[in-house]
Amino acid sequence: MLETNPFSILAETVSPFAMQSFIIAMILLIAFGTIIQMIHHKNLTYFLNNAKKAKLQATREIGTGERVSILAKTAVVDIGTTSELGFGKRRLSHVLGMYGTIIFWVSSAMLVFCYTGADKSSSTIWSMLWHAGAILTCIGGYWFWFFLRVDVSAEAHPWYRIIKADLFVLALLACSTFGLAWSYAQFNGQVGLSFLFLTLFVTANLVLFGGVYWSKFAHMFYKPGAAIQKNLAEADGSRDNLPPPADAPEQFGLGIKREEPKHY
Amino acid sequence: MSTFVYMTRCDGCGHCVDICPSDIMHIDENIRRAKNIEPNFCWECYSCVKACPNHAIDVRGYADFAPMGHSVRVRREEEKGTISWKIKFRNGTTKDFVSPITTKPWGKFIPKLADGEKPNQGEINSQRLYTEPEGLNIDGELPVVPKDSFKKGVYY
């Protein structure tokens, strides 16, 4: 199953053009939802105002070379490994979900545009990546959903309590789970189940990409921006008015380590 | 004045939710970031501000030492054992302070009362408190201020 392109089997009933159009429609929905959210929440204005304030409070100029190096470091460390989540389960689960989702989406596009259709060849690698991406997303996402959500682990709410902030993670999990279930059912020739899971897979995609305005989807665009701004502010001395790191006098010694927030 | 959260900095880790003594820091239902649900009940203890690993929480400070246009921010560095403050006045003056972290780990210095000796009736009736006078590092009797040394009437 893992080496089979589920879209090429689907192409026997649904035209590849329809599938490609669906992917383009989803990309347009992301762009539309993000732009509307940006206008309504004024996120861009906030970032620009912050940048202006930081420039006024800067104590030193950052050269182009240093700026590029900060951007590169932010991309690799802060964004690539979501370092703001510290060292622990939350970061690991986020990294699993993040890379799983990216692999899942990229491989979906590759499979549909390049390897689906009557005259197209098959690709074992992209098919395996598609399944691996979905599995990684499920591992990271369900781990977060059942065990790591702060409103569950720290605020003692039951795990089945659903709030608006769950729209993104639940839609993402539904996409990956139903995608895998559809691939499995289709591979084993279970026509009824295959149709059911395909319908749920498509619906989950519509909710995920159509709900960008209401969900946390756009955090994947804003968070990198915030990380870049934070690191630039540290470098130019404005530091969002924070004090500079202490020079650690010897007599102060090691302070106590904060505990994980799990006192309920 | 109360705490508020910079939403772009917060990652919803829950340290502030856990530490808030007033239980007013909660997770927002729409974006899963921290928020102060009852600013009127915030007594500006700065626990959440210090606990936040991303410096996402700020407080509008007291008007007496930091009036409008000011900023009071703190950076807690556990590995160095330091806590640093930066106070910025609205005329541009800034003051930086660095102090040691003096917080003790949970439960480390709590006396094990159940393991101690049971007090007798005389000790229970005594006006002395638990572990006095040895707990005050005093040998023998507690110091007494003679009553005739007191001034008469109300005084401050």
Which H/E pattern describes the elements of chain B? EHEEHEEEEH
Architecture of one domain in chain B, CATH level 2? 2-Layer Sandwich
Structural class of chain A: mainly alpha
Write the CATH fold name of one domain in chain B: Alpha-Beta Plaits
- Helix count of chain B equals 3
Helix content of chain A: 55-70%
How many DSSP-defined strands of chain B? 7
Q: Report the structural category of chain B.
A: mainly beta
What is the secondary structure topology, with strand pairs?
The complex is a heterodimer of chains A (264) and B (156).
Chain A: H1 6-10, H2 16-41, H3 43-57, H4 64-79, H5 89-114, H6 124-148, H7 150-153, H8 166-187, H9 191-210, H10 219-236
Helix pairs in contact in A: 2-9, 3-10, 4-10, 5-6, 6-8, 8-9
Chain B: E1 3-5, H1 15-19, E2 25-27, E3 34-36, H2 47-51, E4 57-59, E5 71-77, E6 82-88, E7 94-100, H3 121-125
Antiparallel strand pairs in B: 1-4, 2-3, 5-6, 6-7
Describe the 3D structure.
The complex is a heterodimer of chains A (264) and B (156). Chain A is mainly alpha-helical and 264 residues long. Chain A is built from 10 helices and no strands. In chain A, helix 6 crosses helix 8. The model of chain A has no long low-confidence stretch (mean pLDDT 89). Chain B has a domain of 58 residues: 2-Layer Sandwich (Alpha-Beta Plaits), CATH 3.30.70.20. Chain B contains 3 helices and 7 strands; from the N terminus they run βαββαββββα. In chain B, the strands form 3 sheets. A 3-stranded antiparallel sheet of chain B has the order 5-6-7. In chain B, strands 1-4 form a two-stranded antiparallel sheet. In chain B, strands 2-3 form a two-stranded antiparallel ribbon. At the A-B interface, helix 7 and helix 10 of A face helix 1, strand 5, strand 6 and strand 7 of B.
Structure described in brief:
Chain A is built from 10 helices and no strands. Chain A is mainly alpha-helical and 264 residues long. Helix content of chain B is 10%, strand content 21%.
